[in-house]
Structure formats: structure tokens, C-alpha cells
């Protein structure tokens, strides 16, 4: 399979979500173009530690500097299947919602929208302000998908890792690349 997916990591809490997305995409033989914002790097180190941050980078086929606006993924001619931003900070959400392509992460997200490719944002904040809700509405109106990282409690996960893996699988499933990877509601 020659499929590529952009994985953006912003500075919001929830770095484990990015790592689980990267692990799942790697198991599916899907190449990851990784974009870590400056604060995304900081949060990964804080929440995951050096070993897990190194693993995240190792799982990527390409690592892009968040300030490199000349990177291939900044162009619609770059053949990717879509993008996941995990986690997505409210700052990144606001920039994407308003078309402010001022970083590689927000530019790559804007490219997905303009090319009508899937864009999945694991928006991390609570509680939400009206500005957050309006930005989520704007992205949704542009065909982006807002996926708050809410655990599927009905699956009775044993631990935090099971919760983040399920959320990551839902995000990957929303790209519609293959058969569903997330555990389904048992009914």
C-alpha cells in the first residue's frame, strides 16, 4: 500500500493519542508524515517521556519541521489520504477555522480542506467557550471532522492505554482507508 497520512501534533494535552494513531497507522502499513508544533514537542516530552517521543518520531516515514512552509505537505499536489490532528489545541482549531495557514500544521490542515480530503481534529479542551464551539462549527461546515477524544465507556476499558487506543482507532477509521479498526458498540 502506498498510502500516506499527515499526523499533526499540537500542544494540547493528549500526546498519547498521537502515539496511538502513529502505532495503528504503522501496523496498517500507512506512511505517516509527522508535524510536531513547538508546543507539541514539549507536551510529548512532558506526557510521554523521551522513549515514547522517540517512538513517535521513529514511526513516522517523514518528520516535518512545523515552521517549514515549503514542505511537500503544504501543497495540494502532495498525494496524501487525509490528516489527523491529535491532539488539536484550541489555537490550532481557531487557525484552521479561520484559514490562518501560519504554521505547517495549520497549512497542511487547510490543504486537506481545500482538496476535499478527510481532516480529523481531536479537539482537546474543557469546558468549551462560545469561540471554541464556533470554530468547531466553522471547521465542520468546511467538511472537517471534530472528534473530541471521549472514551467509549461502554467497552469497559481496563486502563488509559485501552481508552486512547480506541479513540485513535476511531480517528483513523474516519479517514476511511480500510475496514474499521475501532471496537464497535456490541449492542
From TrEMBL:
Major enzyme class: transferase
Binding site for dimethylallyl phosphate: 154, 170
Residue sites binding FMN per the record: 11-13, 37, 89-92, 124
A molecular function (GO) term: flavin prenyltransferase activity
Superkingdom to which the source organism belongs: Bacteria
Chemical reaction(s) catalysed: dimethylallyl phosphate + FMNH2 = prenylated FMNH2 + phosphate
One Pfam family from the record: Flavoprotein
Domain Flavoprotein: 4-168
InterPro entries named in the record: Flavin_trans-like, Flavoprotein, UbiX-like
Keywords annotated in UniProt: Flavoprotein, FMN, Prenyltransferase, Transferase
E.C. designation(s): 2.5.1.129
Statement: the UniProt record of this protein carries the keyword Flavoprotein: yes
NCBIfam families reported in the protein's UniProt record: PRK06029.1 (NF004685), ubiX_pad (TIGR00421)
HAMAP family found in the cross-reference section: ubiX_pad
Family affiliation: Belongs to the UbiX/PAD1 family.
Role: Flavin prenyltransferase that catalyzes the synthesis of the prenylated FMN cofactor (prenyl-FMN) for 4-hydroxy-3-polyprenylbenzoic acid decarboxylase UbiD. The prenyltransferase is metal-independent and links a dimethylallyl moiety from dimethylallyl monophosphate (DMAP) to the flavin N5 and C6 atoms of FMN.
This protein's name: Flavin prenyltransferase UbiX
Amino acid at each position: 500500500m502506498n498510502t500516506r497520512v499527515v499526523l499533526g501534533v499540537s500542544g494540547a494535552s493528549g500526546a498519547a493519542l498521537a502515539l496511538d494513531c502513529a502505532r495503528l497507522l504503522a501496523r496498517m502499513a500507512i506512511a505517516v508524515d509527522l508535524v510536531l508544533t513547538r508546543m507539541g514537542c514539549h507536551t510529548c516530552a512532558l506526557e510521554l517521556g523521551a522513549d515514547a517521543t522517540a517512538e513517535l518520531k521513529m514511526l513516522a516515514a517523514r518528520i516535518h519541521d512545523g515552521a517549514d512552509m515549503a514542505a511537500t505537505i503544504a501543497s495540494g499536489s502532495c498525494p496524501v489520504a487525509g490528516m489527523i490532528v491529535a491532539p488539536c489545541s484550541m489555537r490550532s482549531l481557531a487557525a484552521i477555522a479561520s484559514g490562518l495557514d501560519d504554521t505547517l500544521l495549520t497549512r497542511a490542515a487547510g490543504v486537506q480542506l481545500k482538496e476535499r480530503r478527510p481532516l480529523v481534529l481531536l479537539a482537546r479542551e474543557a469546558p468549551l467557550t462560545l469561540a471554541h464551539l464556533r470554530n468547531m462549527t466553522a471547521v465542520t461546515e468546511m467538511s472537517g471532522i471534530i472528534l473530541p477524544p471521549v472514551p467509549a465507556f461502554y467497552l469497559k476499558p481496563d486502563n488509559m492505554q485501552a481508552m486512547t487506543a480506541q479513540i485513535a482507532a476511531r480517528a483513523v477509521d474516519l479517514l476511511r482507508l480500510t475496514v474499521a479498526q475501532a471496537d464497535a458498540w456490541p449492542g
